[in-house]
Amino acid sequence: MAKSKTPAKRARRAEARRLRNKAYKSRIKTAEKKYLAALAENNVEQAKANLLQVISLLDKSVNKGILHKNTVARKKSKLVQKFNQLAK
After folding, report:
1. Own/partner pairs for 15-22, CB < 8 Å, 24+ apart?
2. For 54, phi and psi rounded to 5 degrees?
3. What is the secondary structure of 1-22 as a DSSP string?
4. Distance, C-alpha 36 to centroid of its chain
5. How many other C-beta atoms can be found within 10 angstroms of the C-beta atom of residue 18?
6. Are 54 and 37 in contact (CB under 8 A)?
7. How far apart are CA 55 and CA 47, in angstroms?
8. How do the domains of the chain map onto residue ranges?
9. What is the pTM of this model?
10. Which tens digit of pLDDT belongs to each residue from 47-76?
11. For a disulfide at 2, which of 7, 13, 17, 23, Cβ 3.0-4.6 Å?
């Protein structure tokens, strides 16, 4: 444990950020699962709505510094690729 006030505060703030990031990543994963479930059911309209939601969450995660921009670009690309295969 930290010996003085400043490192102790930094540790508290780091823990709070870690928990916030973990919750946000969980929201993204849940949205991705809903999207993939809609794809599995061949429900194009629901899949499109879920895709837009996932993309929105991913873009916000970049702005908040939760995920790296290249990671998000890769995930978005894969998700759109799967949607395009279904739409054909």
Report:
1. 21/66
2. -65, -45
3. --SSHHHHHHHHHHHHHHHHHH
4. 14
5. 10
6. no
7. 12
8. 25-87
9. 0.88
10. 999 999 999 999 999 999 999 999 999 999
11. 7
> Residue 75, SS3?
helix
> Cα(59)–Cα(52) distance, rounded to whole angstroms?
11
**What residues contact residue 76 under an 8 Å CB cut-off, 6+ apart?**
55, 58
Tell whether domain 25-87 is in CATH 3.30.559.30. Answer: no
Helix axes 44-64, 69-87, angle to 10 degrees: 170
Question: What is the C-alpha to C-alpha distance for residues 10 and 31, in angstroms, rounded to an integer?
Answer: 32
- Taking only the tens place, the pLDDT of each residue in 8-36 is 999 999 999 999 999 999 999 999 999 99
Tokens of 29: 């994963």
CB atoms within 10 A of CB 37: 13
Cα gap 83→52, rounded to integer Å: 11
Tokens read off for 11: 């540790």
The answer to whether 86 and 50 have CB atoms below 8 angstroms apart is no
